Amino acid sequence: MHFHILVFILFTFIFTYLLFKLFLHPKEKSINNKKAPGPAKLPIIGNLHLLGTLPHRSLHSLSIKYGPIMSLQLGQVPTIIVSSSKAAELFLKTHDIVFASRPKIQASKLISYDSKGLAFSEYGPYWRSVRKLCTLKLLSPSKVEMFGPIRKEELGVLVKSLEKASMVGEVVNVSEVVGNLIEEIMCKIILGRSKYEQFDLKKLIQEALALIGSFNMADYVPWLGAFDLQGLTRACKRVSKSLDEVLEVIITEHEQATKIDKTHREDFVNILLSIMHQPIEFENEHNLIIDRTNIKAILLDMIVAGIDTSSTVIEWALSELIRHPRVMKNLQDEITNEVGNKRMVEENDLNKLNYLDMVVNETLRLYPVGPLLIPRECRESRTIDGYFIKKKTRVMINAWAIGRDLNVWSENADEFYPERFIDKKMNYQGQEFDSIPFGSGRRRCPGIQLGLVTVKLVIAQLVHCFNWKLPYNMSPSNLNMEEKFGLTMPRAQHLYAIPSYRLAGDAKHE
Ligand code: HEM
To answer: Transmembrane segments in this chain: where (predicted)?
Structure first.
């Protein structure tokens, strides 16, 4: 019985699709507008089969054939892939407002309260208000500085445990300890604490990250979504229910603590609760009164966007430093010259460490954690560089390809060579397009400052306090550097290394 219904539905869709192709397509063509070049597509799936397991690499190869503005059909979604810095500037600066929206994806609808957070909400008064709120109240320079003691404390704990490991020559899973460190830091900043006996917050966050990053057929061939063939709809609903329960507990706990003690520590939950039920913005008579659902959606976005990003950058930087002893030595020398060898690095040392900046810029160029940024959606039909782009077209910016463009970065573009940034200062505020690890334009990352200070401090500390060598006498040049594709782009294999403590015996490290 069910089988017959399924066959009937499939035939109905295929029939509708063919009708659409026969009668609508010629009409489209008759409009004299040039489409960006792209590969031939298959019925129903379009070009989905060309993405492969590492879409940023497959799309880069295709762009060499079809050009920096390439047209694809992903299932039923017309898509433009942007693969050069010049083209990115057109989409993210010249015509930024046209491409400042996000497509609705199923995972964000189900997990992130119908996209009521920041990262996946469509462009408009709601997004503008929430963005302003997050930039001013949560991620401003003064707030980033205010959370400095949390970074210092957590990093101190890690250094102590690594010092113990170094005494016995233990092999450390660097990817795991860095991941845990960033999770601890971000959960304390966002939620006030990271450990809860009642539930496994870390596991839930990992599940949510995996679901938001997964490739869901429902987003590309919506009529297939009804069948939930990948089981992702069910998984999203289950994780969303558990996360909601957890957020309710955390918020209620904060509300009760505030009633008892007015001098509570500031974290994102408390900051947001202090403005609950208040209008946060008046714009063309749009008056957003922030409620509990808005707060939960914003908190979730901060957790999802804030944790994996920073830890992935640190993991890649340490891998490249271990692979390049010359660069590692230059960096350690710079830090020792500024800080000495009797104390740990402090946050206010960071602005004197120019070589560290270059190492971080080079890591972000080669390993942008969001290789295709977060997809954009075209808000109105527009002709860009002679190519007609229809309203609702999805736009993906291949930041990975842009950072490795031979025309911009010369023939050694694939090499880790921080010195290329000696005369090229990067501030990621939307002026440069040769490397765009934080995106650009209105939707660029609002957590740049928090991300950069965390990444720089952790890298500086770990190479200042320790020398690192690969286990089992592995040669640095043999370290596997393959990546995995997802919401972020981490190493395919965890990084393992042996630390040896290098500060003076009486050095202070708290
Ligand atoms: C080194 C660390 C980080 C990197 C490399 C990074 C990268 C990115 C990228 C590529 C985007 C998409 C931009 C676009 O579409 O143009 C983004 C968006 C975003 N990031 Fe970050 N990010 C980092 C850290 C953070 C942190 C620490 C937070 C907050 C706790 C954060 C919050 C967000 C949010 C909320 C968005 C969505 C913005 C919007 O759509 O308006 N990020 N980030």
So the answer is: 6-24
Q: Report, as an integer, the average pLDDT of 496-505.
A: 93
- ipTM more than 0.95? yes
165 Cα distance to chain centroid = 31
Please tell me whether 445 is known to bind a ligand: yes
What is the atom index within ligand 1 of the atom nearest the CA of 374? 15
Range of the domain at 186: 30-501
Q: Which atom of ligand 1 is nearest to the CA of 373?
A: 10
Beta-carbon neighbour count of residue 359 at 10 Å? 27
pTM of the prediction?
Answer: 0.91
Residue 1 lies in a domain: no
- Alpha-carbon distance of 39 to 364, in angstroms, equals 30
Residue of 309, 448, 459 to mutate, ligand 1, most atoms within 8 A of C-beta: 309
56, 366 Cβ separation under 8 angstroms: no
Q: Percent of the chain, pLDDT > 70?
A: 91
End-to-end CA distance of the chain: 68
> For residue 508, is it within any domain?
no
Q: Residue 7: its pLDDT value, please?
A: 46
Backbone angles phi and psi of 277, in degrees to 5 = 70, 5
Strand partners, 145: none
- β-pair type (77-82, 466-469): unpaired
Number of domains into which the chain is organized: 1
CA of 131 relative to ligand 1 center, distance in Å: 12
SS (H, E, C) 464-491: HHEEEECCCCCCHHHCCCCECCCCCCCE
Evaluate whether residue 15 is within a structural domain. Answer: no
